[in-house]
Amino acid sequence: MHIFERERERERERERNMFGRALLILVAVIGCCISSSSAAVSGVALKTSTDFVKASCSRTTYPQLCYSSLVSHASAIQTSPKLLASTALSVALTKARSTSAVMVKLSKAQGLKPREVGAMKDCVEELGDAVYELRRSIAEMDAPLRSKTFELMISDVQTWVTAALTDETTCSDGFAGRMMNGKLKTIVRKHIKTVAHLTSNALALVNLYASLCV
């Protein structure tokens, strides 16, 4: 008799576990369709949203940077994949703008070598393009779906973010080779590395959002 009771208890436990997993999946799927989210109102809610950010960031190439750049927005993101992707894009845009301003300032420095002048000119242009492309990606993400399908919207967002990442990487590549070694190269690549990694993470989270909702 006790054996049967233990079997029934194990069966109930399996059902509870299956229900828990199904509920987590349901929350994530519902989050895809939520365009806005209220701020967390309790410590429990904050923990849930923080865990969501951390788990999602583990799917990116640079998870530690992802988490540190987004955890302060966790209460607004809650458990919405769309808000997470949108916030990551906004963080990348903010960094791209500040990096672009740094590139403009560096390009006007005195004593640059001819090769450095050319590389900085290209870099300023490429960072300006990256800022524009990230702005477009955010506009696409936030625009209401009318004539576009979800799949087409996501495709456009992915295209803009990929273009921004390419421009950022191209700026860094302009300083390749021993002839470009020096302080300027070190400064430029340090700034570009951060914004490129943030953009890469944003693209990964857009892809994650798409995979959950397509």
From TrEMBL:
Q: State the family it belongs to.
A: Belongs to the PMEI family.
Q: Where is the Pectinesterase inhibitor domain?
A: 48-205
Q: Does the keyword Cytoplasm apply?
A: no
Q: Does the keyword RNA-binding apply?
A: no
Q: Which Pfam families match?
A: PMEI
The species this protein belongs to is Punica granatum (Pomegranate)
Going by the UniProt record, its keywords in alphabetical order are: Signal
Q: Which GO terms describe its molecular function?
A: pectinesterase inhibitor activity
Recorded protein name is 21 kDa protein-like
